[in-house]
Amino acid sequence: MAEESCPVALSELCLAQVCLSLDSLCRTQPDGSLRLSWAPLLPQEMADQLLHKMAAQGTLNDRTVGIFRSCEQLRLRRACVRSSPLSAEAFRLALCPHRLQELDASGVPGGLTGAHILSGLASNPECRASLQRLTLSRLQLGWTSLEVKEEQVGFSSLQGLRTLNLANTDLTDPFLEDICTLPQLEVLDISSTPVTELSALLGCRLTLRSLTAHGLRQLDMSPARVISILSQLHALRHLDLSDDRFVSAPPSSENDEGGEGDEAVRLLLEGGSGILPALVSLDVSGRKKVTEGAVTAFVEGRRGLLFLGLLATGAGSCDVLSGKNNLKVAGEANEKQICESLRRYRERECFTREALVHLYQLTNDMYDQTRPDILKLVLGGMQNYSKSLHVQLVASACVFNLTNQDMAVGMPHPLLSAVVHQVLEAMRSFPSHQQLQKNCLLVLCSDTILQDVPFDRFEAAKLVMNWLSGHVDRTLQRMAVAVISILVAKLSTEQTTQLGADIFIMKQLLGIVQQKAMAGVVDSTLKFALSALWNLTDETPTASRHFIQCQGLELYEEVLEVGEAHTHTHSELKWWNHSMNCSLPLALQTYSSESSIQQKVLGLLNNIAEVEELQADMMQEDLLEHVVTLLQGPQVEVGVSYFAGGVLAHLTSRQDAWTLDQGLRQTILEQLHAAILTWALPEREMVSYRSFRPFFSLLQTSQPAGVQLWAVWAMHLVCTQNGVQYCHMLQVEGAVELLKTLSSDLDTHSNVRGMAESILGMVERHQTTSNPLRTQTEKGHHGRS
């Protein structure tokens, strides 16, 4: 099974929960640090994993690291505090008492320096001998506190060290000399440090197996001298002399360190098999003087070569490379090389970006291929460089190519979920970059992602809506509105309420409806905007109120009016013309043949009519007359009639709130009752409900028969089409008791009683066939995109 398809390990889930529950599992000490209230003797590997998980989740700090002061219960061997804000004192008390074998303290903020770490580790005699691997990259070493005195506190005090990473630190020549006296040193990374001399490396020439030394900008040695020193490192198997300044280096830089380094690499490649003959790995990516001839000679002279870094050298197409099955190449010549580059250069932003650029070109032609392996590599780049515009821009383009159309269908959902999370993070981090926002929107506009993949849809809806406010590109507008429509339909009631509380969103969507109405256009953008508005007002009184405040009711009335009759003139379209300083064209009569438009308009009016405080705004004879005409007829689809009936049922259900002529109310009730009896059940699903509670007031025995009949017909419809969901919902919400009361009341109309008894029969059959099966009620909405 593919790694992306495997469920998360139980241990991972447990550790994540512990990280989230530290406050409840611990007691606070007088100094503010935490101690576990109770803890068993955890396996050492589990303690290491807990520390790593806390660092990865961002919960490791001076307060929480205190739990590791209990060395008896939580024994650390491989400690990772990467990028965690720790003070020198907290580090000393919590980590230094352990018999550590490995420590990764790279990029630690908060004042902790390399000097503090060394002095703390050296204070534990066991650590002096046990520590084998130390990573302090991207850390201020603070050498002033490590001056060589009679009792030297330096790296040489850690006699067990085999691997040391000091990349991007302030390492200087004297301390490089100190490091090279370590008797067992095998792996050393001094990249991007201010060292000027490499002669000290000869001190470990018999043990050093791996040297990473890119970006030595202050190196003061001739290329020949550099190669002379390196050639004496007899144990060396892995060498990295790459240069990631190639993107920004000007043509005049031939005489700077980059030029000197390029010359050293040329001498190495062309120097014959006598120089470092035992090398199995060489990285010269980004170097300028790498030729295919030199690469060919170098490879042929070293049969044991396993890796060669050639990204951004132009030499990755050598014929000799294709014939070496065991040789891995990081380059840009083909898919295999590009993927190797993304794997190798996770911590090299410039190389990651370069590889992604070539991957984008490659994926442009990758049709109908589901490649989760490549998508995972792209995701890694996005996660590692979430604040890099350049990486996010090209990575998001790659994601679109890899998930476009049906390519997302076969992708593991956990992988897609992580990708969408990073896409949303990119949208949030770079809100004003149009192309990046466009890329991210293109990624989101996928049926598979929008419908099936778990992610923060509420946050996504807000981000897309914010983007929409500043862009008018028609194609992108259509996609944005489609995305919003589908996202809103997936939100919980609480999230929809929160989203609907922003009147700006209502104005934006109504503006799109008005824009399309002005042009007389019936397209997917209009339909998605209407669906979004429909779902946004579903059981959300605040959004419904905003709809009224933004004069949405007047706009919708005009849409219905023009859809019903083709004889209106511009002057008759009163409010919207005045408030927007424009006029709606007669082309809007196109809506008369668009039942989907009418259905979405009436569906939203249904939502408004459910809110008692807003019913007074709908007490308009013209509006009600338009709705009544849609109750039935040979040209009216049942979906349109159904929602027209819902509007009328809610508005006529409260006699005391009816402000129009009572005779009109009675006429409407009679026509509603008669129309419902003519409705045939549609073959396809027409509507979905998150709750039946808005129907409860309509099912009271005191209600007119027409109102009751509409409510039971609606319930009967959805129970017929999805009995498992809705029969269970009827029971859970208490609607069954209302139906029984209605059925047993002697004054209930026979049509209503018959429909109610039919629903009760379906519920009983559902109990018989499904018990004890319990299905969770879906968070459906009235709306349909």
Automatic annotation (TrEMBL):
<feature type="domain" description="Protein zer-1 homolog-like C-terminal">
    <location>
        <begin position="588"/>
        <end position="764"/>
    </location>
</feature>
<dbReference type="InterPro" id="IPR016024">
    <property type="entry name" value="ARM-type_fold"/>
</dbReference>
<feature type="region of interest" description="Disordered">
    <location>
        <begin position="766"/>
        <end position="785"/>
    </location>
</feature>
<dbReference type="InterPro" id="IPR032675">
    <property type="entry name" value="LRR_dom_sf"/>
</dbReference>
<dbReference type="InterPro" id="IPR055142">
    <property type="entry name" value="ZER1-like_C"/>
</dbReference>
<dbReference type="InterPro" id="IPR051341">
    <property type="entry name" value="Zyg-11_UBL_adapter"/>
</dbReference>
<comment type="similarity">
    <text>Belongs to the zyg-11 family.</text>
</comment>
<keyword id="KW-0833">Ubl conjugation pathway</keyword>
<dbReference type="GO" id="GO:0031462">
    <property type="term" value="C:Cul2-RING ubiquitin ligase complex"/>
</dbReference>
<dbReference type="InterPro" id="IPR011989">
    <property type="entry name" value="ARM-like"/>
</dbReference>
<feature type="domain" description="Protein zer-1 homolog-like C-terminal">
    <location>
        <begin position="382"/>
        <end position="562"/>
    </location>
</feature>
<feature type="compositionally biased region" description="Basic and acidic residues">
    <location>
        <begin position="776"/>
        <end position="785"/>
    </location>
</feature>
<protein>
    <submittedName>
        <fullName>Protein zyg-11 homolog</fullName>
    </submittedName>
</protein>
<dbReference type="Pfam" id="PF22964">
    <property type="entry name" value="ZER1-like_2nd"/>
</dbReference>
